Amino acid sequence: MYRKILITTDGSAVSQHTACAGVKFAHQMGAEVLALFVAPEYQYPVYVEIIPPSYPSEDEYIAQMRRTGEDYMGRIMRSCADAGLKHSCMTAFSDATALKIVDIAEQEGCDLIFMGSHGRSGWGQILLGSVTNKVLSHTTKPVLVHRLIHEPAAT
């Protein structure tokens, strides 16, 4: 039914558990997995005439965010490899996370977006997460929203 599934993560414990559920779902479907981490754009210091020496350069920031993304997606990649699934990962940069998720799903030919009901910015179990809600509002692709009943312990 689905050939390529986009699984998003923000590195939080909730999104890591959601990603594992996404890999299990992809295994059931026999689908390829594309793991995605969207990092915020580099921000130049505001109202500073001279950039402090301790402030990372844009290249340093991009390299660090790519390493962070690889770390976040490492568990997903290992789970895919263990399940024998074709898989890849991508770190993208945007301050509009939901729109970037929708764009990547379109560009990469994904049939389904698999994401959690809440991530780093969730308000508990009261409201649907803002990024998830925006993805649902901006895509024509199917979105499977995974909801955890209990908050996982941080690992």
From TrEMBL:
**Full protein name:** Universal stress protein
* Residues annotated as domain UspA: 1-145
Q: Which residues form a coiled coil?
A: none
GO molecular function term, any single one: ATP binding
Family that this chain belongs to: Belongs to the universal stress protein A family.
Q: Name one Pfam family in it.
A: Usp
What keywords are annotated for this sequence in UniProt?
Answer: ATP-binding, Nucleotide-binding
Q: Which organism is the protein's source?
A: Massilia litorea
Q: Which InterPro entries match?
A: Rossmann-like_a/b/a_fold, Universal_stress_UspA, UspA
